[in-house]
Amino acid sequence: MDDFREQGPLFTFGVIADIQYADIDDGLNFTQTRRRFYRNSLQLLKEARETWSQSATPPNFILQLGDIIDGFNKDHGASSGALDRVLEEFSLDSMDVHHVWGNHELYNFTRSELLKSRLNSAVLADGRAGGDIYAYSFSPFPGFTFVVLDAYDVSLLGVEEDSLRYQSAFTFIKQHNNNEDLNCPPVEFDSLEQRFTKFNGGFSVTQLDWLNRVLSSADKEQEKVSIVSHLPVHPCSTTPICLAWNFEELLSIIQRHSSVVCFIAGHDHDGGYYWDESTGVHHLTLEAVIETPPGNNAFGTVSVYEDRMVLKGTGRVSDIELLFP
To answer: How many separate domains does the chain show?
Structure first.
């Protein structure tokens, strides 16, 4: 195993989550319990980008795990301007950036607007789920595939309230959450039912069928697959309030395929990690930039070897070694 280290990694990539930039003063989260550093998040992104670009071997690509700008931008009519500022920072280097969509993207823009925007990085895809589902796969190195999932394919966000898509999602969530404000979780803190809130979403049957086909092909080719989503899907890798609505269906698919080695998500600002011993899959939830104060940071660089990934974290993100099953 040490020989792999001596030879260097096959490739590397950067990871960063929940930047949530807005040109407004620091504030508090939805429950008024945690401070958020809206302007500082752009400075932390700059520091992350400079670290990546100045490394001896810059990453082959960056995974931006969603919530790139904050929903407050919509209230101030600043959505496009805020997005331009963040994407300008990313564009100062030539590394490809794979953008994941989170709830804050959908607070600021409709799905149709996002599909036409620079946050649609499916132009870098080798394969796509099709339609307006923002899910695609790409291969940065022979034998390795990454799958970007659309965790808000089933959602109340970014679609018209009179649309069939909205009505279907509304009917579904009301089976679990009877609160007038659907951003309020339905039950006590520890219950998995907490996930049924408006700021979460789920994966459609169409998307899950597509993922199953991608993984079946990867099994056959003996590839190693990492799946990326804004929402975590394993209860032990996050708090219940941050889980995808139908996480069980996603986990069921993963359990049927030997090719999956890792699931990477954001959304839970505290981060989390769990190794699923039954499948050998690592579930990594990255800490958020937006709740990282000045003088600290929250991003990482992952080196990929034949038998493992090694995450070198910065600031709030810890180092971790992810052995392949």
So the answer is: 1
